[in-house]
Design goal:
heterodimer, A: 560 residues, alpha+beta, FAD/NAD(P)-binding domain, seven-stranded mixed sheet, B: 174 residues, 10 helices, 66% helix
Chain lengths: 560, 174
């Protein structure tokens, strides 16, 4: 099998390239490890979405080794043994099918963190090789191509936009959004509307959001959510230039002895070895697995793994640091009308606290990079909600005591939460390597993920969380609780193949092409040397469109 | 506020009425439970707050879970072995004939053992699945769990074709 371009993975880092290259007439083959779950297969079934491994591999077959901080050192445990599943969506469209779609652009200073704020001891901070201005047209392209709804309002950290507003109007909001705005005004804080990768009106064959109340962790039944599958891959398939092979687990990338990649080897759905030849290969398996694949692709030419001549592959893995907090909005604390409106399911909050994206506080040593807090509802899925209620102070409760607590939680209040996003400082103790002993079902080494974090992440996470706590209290929340820790959110992973200008300190060049391999590109979040204080997906989508433009320049259109 | 509460009260009505039954009736019903049901009933009883584990068919749901070959056998063994340990440790016939307060003593004793602490927590989670899953999985009959907690299910709801585990073959065939 031969194609002009072979794309490995089909999530946010892959979709734009698959779409743009197919539309330009290039033959594209997509190798996706997971099954092809189509829109009609999705329902709001908690059993399928969160209680069983349907969208993710069985941990008996495929696991990770997590090397987590313990005491003064680290302790390695595999995810099967500790019952911690870090897989995200392993299906066509990847985890973008299951995101909530809180979309933020990185800010101009995020592209030059080192020159803006100086070095941080113990952190490997570098400037990006491109600027916000380079990325801006692609952020805009994501707004129209993937579909982003929202309302641009002026605030101290609003990035420069080439268009006045979003192409899709904001989604319908719960009354709590207005209450948050009012609380912000009372406190003198800016509560800013949050754009969402969710269509508020239809786009081609995708319908507008019908506010099912089940978004994060669930596949979208109207295709309103801007998954790579619904927004980009379906269109690519319609060109007739794209072949999508699901259940294709790539295990080796073969070079020709002259620094050129020639074949991607994979196990098909029947566990048979197959290969695809191509002129250009694009790897986008999500950060941890992309680094793993390159490290697994060792040969005489690349003894330490593909594109790893300077031992950079897997290094400087980053997540989004931050914290979480919550409160109860008791209906009895509000007017009858407001209580009724607060309880209405489906309507969105879409507000973020942006004032501390940069912090100027002598207690923190002057001007430092900060972060933001997104306000969200507790997810609606009731089993997950109930499980969280079964203990008080770590002790199981049962009988009428438990039932009274459940009844009150489900019917007398609504839980308002915040999620804080701050930079995860890249450091020498956060990286991907190959596990020495633990293998997957194909007998390949699994990823060994070391999860060291920097104290600054915690400090800034706490600072921003404390501000968000003030908002929860001001809005009338009771039982406010919050926490900041060093455990990473695995749905927000990046780095491992950072891009840069120096092959000795980066894996990819500014176009996300491997320094060492002329026809290899990595376009998931792996390229990001730093992650900003925002969720990553918009940037990953935008960058993939940017690389697609570079590829079109390199290859031309198919019939030109 | 009233509109919100009304729904809650309406959903509770059968249970409010159940509470007016003679307490002897309730005790009689409790005596008809198998020992496994009685454990679950002790954890999530039918009471003034709403229906209980037996109403949610938690025992049958756990049986289904234990027979699901897609679930890791070690997870299933863990649940099944807990029941065996309970059987080894206590006279289950006697447990069936006990009143609620006597059963509570046994459950507390179980919770004080190292195995019982985490096992009770595990079967509590499975009972929550029975209580709040879509009725297609043979728990939550007539949506009583959802009604009790005023829960609005999301749409679309699962069909036979796309429920677990049928979804695997449906995807492969499509």
């Amino acid at each position: 099998m031969k194609a002009r371009i072979c794309v490995i993975g089909s999530g946010a880092g892959a979709g734009p390239i698959i779409s743009e290259m197919s539309k330009a007439g290039h033959e594209v083959i997509v190798l996706e490890k997971g099954p092809w779950i189509k829109t009609e297969h999705f329902s709001k079934d908690e059993m399928v979405a969160t209680r069983r491994s349907v969208y993710t591999p069985d941990l008996r077959d495929e696991r990770h080794v997590l090397n987590r901080p313990k005491g003064d050192g680290f302790e390695a445990k595999n995810t099967y043994d500790i019952g911690k599943d870090i897989w995200q969506g392993n299906v066509v469209g990847g985890s973008s099918n299951f995101m909530s779609g809180y979309f933020h652009r990185m800010k101009p200073k995020d592209f030059k963190l080192l020159s803006s704020y100086g070095p941080t001891e113990g952190a490997n901070i570098v400037d990006w090789p491109i600027s916000y201005e380079d990325m801006e047209p692609y952020y805009t392209k994501v707004e129209t191509e993937v579909g982003i709804s929202g309302r641009a309002v002026n605030h101290p950290f609003l990035e420069e936009r080439s268009t006045e507003d979003y192409p899709y109007p904001p989604l319908a909001e719960n009354i709590v959004a207005k209450k948050l705005d009012a609380a912000g005004k009372e406190l003198g804080y800016n509560l800013v509307p949050v754009p969402r990768a969710i269509l508020s009106r239809s786009k081609e064959d995708r319908s507008a959001c019908y506010m099912s109340n089940y978004c994060g962790s669930f596949g979208c039944s109207s295709d309103a959510k801007g998954s790579s599958r619904a927004a980009l891959i379906n269109g690519a398939l319609a060109t007739g230039n794209c072949e999508l092979i699901p259940n294709a687990k790539v295990f080796h990338l073969e070079t020709n002895g002259k620094g050129k990649l020639v074949k991607a080897w994979y196990y098909d759905g029947e566990e048979k070895k197959q290969s695809v030849e191509a002129d250009i290969f694009v790897v986008a398996c999500q950060a941890i697995e992309s680094s793993r694949l390159l490290l697994m692709s060792k040969n005489k030419e690349f003894e330490h793994g593909l594109a790893n001549n300077y031992d950079q592959v897997g290094k400087n893995l980053v997540f989004s640091a931050g914290g979480v907090g919550s409160c109860n909005l008791f209906y009895s604390d509000f007017s009858e009308d407001d209580a009724f409106k607060l309880a209405l399911p489906g309507l969105f909050i879409n507000r973020a606290l942006y004032d501390w994206y940069e912090i100027d506080d002598p207690d923190l040593g002057g001007k430092v990079k900060g972060g933001l807090a997104d306000f969200v509802w507790e997810h609606a899925n009731p089993i997950t909600k109930a499980v969280k209620l079964k203990k008080d102070n770590g002790k199981l409760i049962w009988g009428s005591e438990l039932k009274k607590k459940m009844k009150a939680h489900f019917t007398e209040q609504r839980m308002l939460k915040f999620e804080v996003f701050v930079d995860w400082n890249p450091n020498d103790n956060c990286h991907v390597s190959l596990a020495k002993k633990v293998k997957d079902k194909w007998n390949d080494p699994v990823a060994n993920v070391k999860l060291g974090f920097h104290d600054q992440d915690i400090k800034i996470g706490r600072y921003v969380s404390q501000k968000a706590v003030e908002v929860l209290k001001q809005v009338g929340g009771k039982n406010v609780s919050w926490g900041v820790g060093g455990n990473p959110p695995f749905n927000l992973q990046a780095g491992g193949c950072r891009f840069g200008t120096d092959p000795k300190t980066s894996v990819l060049d500014a176009n996300c092409r491997a320094h060492d391999v002329d026809n290899l590109y990595v376009t998931d979040g792996s390229f990001m040397p730093t992650g900003g204080s925002v969720t990553f997906t918009w940037t990953i989508y935008a960058n993939s469109f940017r690389v697609a433009d570079h590829l079109l320049e390199r290859l031309g259109t198919a019939n030109a | 506020m009233q509109r919100v509460l009304l729904t809650g009260v309406a959903a509770q009505l059968p249970w409010l009425m159940a509470c007016t039954h003679d307490s002897k009736d309730k005790a009689d019903a409790s005596l008809k439970l198998t020992w496994k049901q009685a454990i679950l009933d002790q954890l999530i009883p039918a009471d003034q707050y709403g229906p209980g584990a037996v109403d949610f068919l938690a025992d049958k749901y756990i049986d289904w879970y234990l027979q699901d070959e897609l679930i890791d056998p070690s997870d299933r063994d863990y649940v099944a072995n807990g029941f065996k340990k309970f059987e080894d440790q206590f006279d289950t016939k006697q447990f069936e004939s006990m009143n609620a307060s006597e059963r509570e003593t046994i459950i507390r004793k179980t919770y004080e053992t190292s195995w019982g602490k985490s096992w009770l927590s595990r079967i509590m989670t499975l009972s929550f699945e029975a209580m709040l899953t879509h009725p297609i999985y043979n728990g939550n009959p007539e949506r009583i769990g959802w009604k009790w907690l005023d829960h609005t299910p999301g749409q679309p709801e699962p069909s036979q074709k796309i429920m677990y585990p049928n979804i695997f073959s449906t995807i492969n065939e499509s």
